[in-house]
Amino acid sequence: MKPFKAILASSLVVTSSAFLVLPFQSKPSPAPRLNDHNQSPIMNPGIQLPAAEDGPPSTAPPKGDVILSDVIGNQRGINVFASFTRDIGSVTSRLESAGLNTTVLAPVNSALSALPRKPWEDPEDYAKLGAEAYDGKSGENRANSNLKRFTEAHVVLASPWKEGEKVDRMEGGQVWWEKKDGKAYVQPGNIEVDSVVSKVANGEVWVLKGVLNYAS
Ligand SMILES: *[C@@H]1O[C@H](CO)[C@@H](O)[C@H](O)[C@H]1NC(C)=O
């Protein structure tokens, strides 16, 4: 009986510690030690090791020939931003390009709904045109170009993306990310990375707890 219980207990320990290591907030919990013969997490097929130290932790192992446009809609927590990427042609094509790598910085739905204005609204439009700023065909075009700017501001033209590396966004302007207290923040703006939810052949999807600055 005892060996069985011991195995059960040790597999529980491994499971719960791996669980704690995976989400970004939980770092720095001690990572499972690979040189510990008795509790090597490799022995447990259900356990996903945290990502290499050069990126935020990830629950997503790289997948063969799957690309960003295949997976961007799969995460319920970012489905609002995912729908923007499908509405904006330039972003859709980028995510469909197998030969061009991209890091998508997708603000979580709650960050979008907390914005003081919709991503397709611009205070300057209201100042110039009043409450009808988005009425009719020209209003629709205006909203569309504002949404394009917002969405492209969250599309980083590189992947893999190393800590501290300044990279261009599709919308213009450079961003980088850094670790602080075990969490990752995109700069400028100090926007916390919640997690990396997809890693595919042409890039990664990172979930942000807020939105990045975009020109307006
Ligand atoms: C694109 O991403 C893949 C998967 O991470 C990587 O193997 C490849 O080196 C990247 N290519 C470029 C040009 O960064």
TrEMBL record:
Keywords: Signal. Residues 65-212 form the FAS1 domain. InterPro entries: FAS1_dom_sf, FAS1_domain, Mug57-like. Residues 29-64 are annotated as: Disordered. The keyword Signal applies. SUPFAM superfamilies: FAS1 domain. Residues 1-18 form the signal peptide. This is FAS1 domain-containing protein. It comes from Cladosporium halotolerans.
